[in-house]
């Protein structure tokens, strides 16, 4: 029981330290036209809203969201690797999940979806 309490305490302290570090380092002193603009996607906010939208930008955003969600799904497995509660089948499921994630990245890479400047 003590190991769990220590793990939770360390996780909370580490999260707070990273949060404070991000807040301190994230303060930007430099401002500009791009930062004060309501859009930071490269489009000029003045003009028609019926401009052709870049499908590559949308695809890259969707890929980011998918892999971001999958990292969140990996978090409990990573926390349980050193613990006694993770059974042998859990390790196989974790390895299978990582293989599927890796194959997805390889597929997107070979398809050229991760290339922004092409």
UniProtKB/TrEMBL annotation:
EC number: 7.1.1.2
Any single Gene Ontology cellular-component annotation: mitochondrial membrane
Protein name stated in the entry: NADH-ubiquinone oxidoreductase chain 3
Keywords carried by this UniProt record: Electron transport, Membrane, Mitochondrion, NAD, Respiratory chain, Translocase, Transmembrane, Transmembrane helix, Transport, Ubiquinone
Catalysis performed (reactions): a ubiquinone + NADH + 5 H(+)(in) = a ubiquinol + NAD(+) + 4 H(+)(out)
Pfam families to which the protein is assigned, alphabetical: Oxidored_q4
Subcellular location(s) per record: Membrane; Mitochondrion membrane
GO molecular function: NADH dehydrogenase (ubiquinone) activity
Xref: InterPro entries: NADH_UbQ/plastoQ_OxRdtase_su3 (IPR000440), NDAH_ubi_oxred_su3_sf (IPR038430)
Superkingdom of the source species: Eukaryota
Transmembrane parts of this sequence: 6-30, 57-79, 85-106
Predominant place of localization: membrane
PANTHER family: NADH-UBIQUINONE OXIDOREDUCTASE CHAIN 3
The family this protein is said to belong to: Belongs to the complex I subunit 3 family.
Membrane topology per record: Multi-pass membrane protein
The protein's role, per its UniProt record: Core subunit of the mitochondrial membrane respiratory chain NADH dehydrogenase (Complex I) which catalyzes electron transfer from NADH through the respiratory chain, using ubiquinone as an electron acceptor. Essential for the catalytic activity of complex I.
Gene3D superfamilies in the cross-refs: NADH:ubiquinone/plastoquinone oxidoreductase, chain 3
Species of the source: Gibbosula crassa
């Amino acid at each position: 029981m003590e190991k769990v309490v220590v793990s939770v305490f360390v996780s909370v302290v580490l999260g707070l330290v990273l949060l404070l570090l991000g807040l301190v380092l994230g303060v930007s002193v430099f401002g500009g036209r791009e930062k004060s603009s309501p859009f930071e996607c490269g489009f000029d906010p003045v003009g028609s809203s019926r401009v052709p939208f870049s499908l590559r930008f949308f695809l890259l955003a969707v890929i980011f969201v998918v892999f971001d969600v999958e990292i969140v799904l990996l978090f409990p497995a990573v926390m349980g690797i050193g613990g006694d509660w993770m059974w042998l089948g859990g390790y196989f499921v974790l390895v299978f999940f990582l293989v599927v994630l890796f194959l997805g990245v390889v597929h997107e890479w070979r398809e050229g979806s991760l290339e922004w400047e092409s």
